[in-house]
Amino acid sequence: MLEDELGIQIFSRSGKHLTQVTPAGQEIIRIAREVLSKVDAIKSVAGEHTWPDKGSLYIATTHTQARYALPNVIKGFIERYPRVSLHMHQGSPTQIADAVSKGNADFAIATEALASV
Fold this sequence. Notes:
By secondary structure, the chain is an alpha/beta fold. The protein is 50% helix and 22% strand.
Protein backbone atom coordinates (compact mmCIF):
# COMPACT_ATOMS: atom_id res chain seq x y z
CA MET A 1 0.00 0.00 0.00
CA LEU A 2 1.23 3.50 -0.81
CA GLU A 3 0.84 4.66 2.79
CA ASP A 4 3.16 1.87 3.96
CA GLU A 5 5.71 2.67 1.27
CA LEU A 6 5.70 6.38 2.10
CA GLY A 7 5.44 5.91 5.84
CA ILE A 8 2.60 8.43 6.20
CA GLN A 9 -1.15 8.34 6.47
CA ILE A 10 -2.97 9.57 3.35
CA PHE A 11 -6.48 8.87 4.60
CA SER A 12 -8.06 9.07 8.04
CA ARG A 13 -10.05 5.98 8.90
CA SER A 14 -12.82 4.89 11.19
CA GLY A 15 -12.55 1.14 11.32
CA LYS A 16 -12.40 -0.05 7.71
CA HIS A 17 -14.00 3.12 6.36
CA LEU A 18 -12.09 6.07 4.92
CA THR A 19 -13.36 9.22 6.58
CA GLN A 20 -11.25 11.98 5.05
CA VAL A 21 -8.05 12.84 3.26
CA THR A 22 -5.22 13.98 5.53
CA PRO A 23 -3.32 17.21 4.76
CA ALA A 24 -0.41 15.08 3.50
CA GLY A 25 -2.88 13.08 1.42
CA GLN A 26 -4.26 16.26 -0.15
CA GLU A 27 -0.75 17.25 -1.23
CA ILE A 28 -0.05 13.76 -2.58
CA ILE A 29 -3.31 13.78 -4.55
CA ARG A 30 -2.46 17.21 -6.01
CA ILE A 31 0.97 15.97 -7.12
CA ALA A 32 -0.49 12.71 -8.46
CA ARG A 33 -2.91 14.71 -10.62
CA GLU A 34 0.01 16.74 -11.98
CA VAL A 35 1.95 13.55 -12.73
CA LEU A 36 -1.04 11.99 -14.51
CA SER A 37 -1.45 15.17 -16.54
CA LYS A 38 2.22 14.96 -17.57
CA VAL A 39 1.78 11.29 -18.51
CA ASP A 40 -1.12 12.31 -20.76
CA ALA A 41 1.07 15.01 -22.31
CA ILE A 42 3.83 12.48 -22.98
CA LYS A 43 1.34 10.12 -24.62
CA SER A 44 0.04 13.01 -26.71
CA VAL A 45 3.54 13.90 -27.94
CA ALA A 46 4.22 10.27 -28.78
CA GLY A 47 0.93 10.05 -30.66
CA GLU A 48 1.67 13.23 -32.61
CA HIS A 49 4.91 11.71 -33.85
CA THR A 50 3.44 8.27 -34.49
CA TRP A 51 0.26 9.49 -36.21
CA PRO A 52 0.89 13.07 -37.40
CA ASP A 53 -2.54 13.28 -39.07
CA LYS A 54 -4.46 12.19 -35.96
CA GLY A 55 -5.11 13.91 -32.65
CA SER A 56 -7.02 16.78 -31.12
CA LEU A 57 -6.97 20.50 -31.78
CA TYR A 58 -8.49 22.94 -29.31
CA ILE A 59 -9.32 26.37 -30.72
CA ALA A 60 -10.56 29.30 -28.64
CA THR A 61 -12.34 32.03 -30.58
CA THR A 62 -14.87 34.79 -30.30
CA HIS A 63 -18.47 34.39 -31.40
CA THR A 64 -17.87 36.65 -34.40
CA GLN A 65 -15.07 34.46 -35.72
CA ALA A 66 -16.89 31.19 -34.96
CA ARG A 67 -20.08 32.35 -36.63
CA TYR A 68 -18.82 34.24 -39.68
CA ALA A 69 -15.12 33.72 -40.46
CA LEU A 70 -14.34 30.14 -39.49
CA PRO A 71 -17.12 27.83 -40.77
CA ASN A 72 -15.62 27.36 -44.25
CA VAL A 73 -12.10 27.08 -42.85
CA ILE A 74 -13.24 24.45 -40.35
CA LYS A 75 -15.11 22.54 -43.04
CA GLY A 76 -11.96 22.43 -45.18
CA PHE A 77 -9.83 21.41 -42.21
CA ILE A 78 -12.16 18.53 -41.33
CA GLU A 79 -12.17 17.33 -44.93
CA ARG A 80 -8.37 17.45 -45.10
CA TYR A 81 -7.75 16.01 -41.62
CA PRO A 82 -10.69 13.72 -40.81
CA ARG A 83 -8.79 11.95 -38.01
CA VAL A 84 -8.21 15.16 -36.05
CA SER A 85 -10.81 15.85 -33.40
CA LEU A 86 -11.56 19.58 -33.50
CA HIS A 87 -12.84 21.33 -30.37
CA MET A 88 -13.93 24.96 -30.26
CA HIS A 89 -14.39 27.19 -27.25
CA GLN A 90 -16.16 30.53 -27.68
CA GLY A 91 -15.66 33.47 -25.38
CA SER A 92 -14.61 37.07 -25.07
CA PRO A 93 -11.09 38.02 -26.16
CA THR A 94 -9.99 37.96 -22.52
CA GLN A 95 -11.58 34.54 -21.93
CA ILE A 96 -10.02 32.95 -24.99
CA ALA A 97 -6.58 34.41 -24.19
CA ASP A 98 -6.97 32.94 -20.71
CA ALA A 99 -7.90 29.54 -22.19
CA VAL A 100 -4.64 29.50 -24.17
CA SER A 101 -2.52 30.68 -21.23
CA LYS A 102 -3.99 27.93 -19.01
CA GLY A 103 -3.40 25.26 -21.67
CA ASN A 104 -7.10 24.69 -22.31
CA ALA A 105 -6.73 25.71 -25.97
CA ASP A 106 -3.92 25.29 -28.48
CA PHE A 107 -4.45 28.77 -29.89
CA ALA A 108 -6.96 31.62 -30.06
CA ILE A 109 -8.46 33.52 -32.97
CA ALA A 110 -9.91 37.00 -32.44
CA THR A 111 -10.07 40.34 -34.17
CA GLU A 112 -11.43 42.16 -31.14
CA ALA A 113 -8.92 43.80 -28.80
CA LEU A 114 -8.19 42.58 -25.30
CA ALA A 115 -9.38 44.86 -22.51
CA SER A 116 -6.53 46.89 -21.11
CA VAL A 117 -4.94 45.32 -18.07
